[in-house]
Amino acid sequence: MPDRTPKWGGWWRDHRQVIDAIAFKYHIGTPWMDLSEHFGSWKGVHNRLRKWAADGTWEKVFTALLARADAEGDLDWVVLVNSTMVRVHQHAAGARQKGPRPASRTTMPSGGPAAD
């Protein structure tokens, strides 16, 4: 994990507490503003999540965790896709697959003159 001393200002909150807050937020599905005060400022947690995503910290953490799990033989992949969770955009449903639609035929008014 990165150093807890930011480039300016004071000390960051403990990384473990911030990771717990991020996990809690995504597990429960609560909005950021409703995050419990137990975790500290929701803005601080959100900013650290964004910073770690931008600087590649999350990739390093997950790579290290995967390498450790693989070395211990604990790595087992199971992927499940539930069709109720995969949705198609509304414009994709029933769209034509073959070229543009043919133009409609022109019609003559019933009382029009006959062509000679």
UniProtKB/TrEMBL annotation:
Domain Insertion element IS402-like positions: 4-62
Signal peptide: none
Source organism per UniProt: Streptomyces roseolilacinus
Protein name per UniProt: Transposase
Region of interest: Disordered: 90-116
